[in-house]
């Protein structure tokens, strides 16, 4: 079954999008665990994962990256090849 809309994808497909200077947006059915293997209950099909390391809801994003002016590219770093990533 397919969802309607701009980001239509099969319901069982997971897509992770790195946003410039922002979080990783994860769309689709995923299971997130903490470092001890305990499941982090997600109530949405789309979640934002922190990249700046300063969120008070880690591993989820709380928008702190905007306050601290976090900078990160959305693509590969200069000089890196896709097969090296």
Which whole number gives the mean pLDDT? Answer: 84
Fourth-level CATH superfamily: CDGSH iron-sulfur domain, mitoNEET-type
Distance between the termini: 32 Å
CATH architecture: 3-Layer(aba) Sandwich
What is the helical fraction, as a range of percent? under 10%
Total domain units:
1
Question: And the CATH topology?
Answer: Ribosomal Protein L9, domain 1
Number of helices: 1
Strand runs, count: 5
Walk across the major sheet and give the strand order.
1-2-5
The CATH C-level name is: Alpha Beta
Low-confidence parts, pLDDT < 50 over ≥5 residues?
A: none
Biggest sheet features: 3 strands, antiparallel
Q: Radius of gyration, rounded?
A: 15 Å
Helix vs. strand class = mainly beta
Shape: globular
Show the helix and strand layout.
Layout: E1 15-18, E2 24-27, E3 32-33, E4 39-40, E5 46-49, H1 64-67
Antiparallel strand pairs: 1-2, 2-5, 3-4
What's this, in brief?
This protein has a single domain (about 1-85), classed as CDGSH iron-sulfur domain, mitoNEET-type (Ribosomal Protein L9, domain 1), CATH 3.40.5. Helix content is about 5%, strand content about 20%. It contains 1 helix and 5 strands.
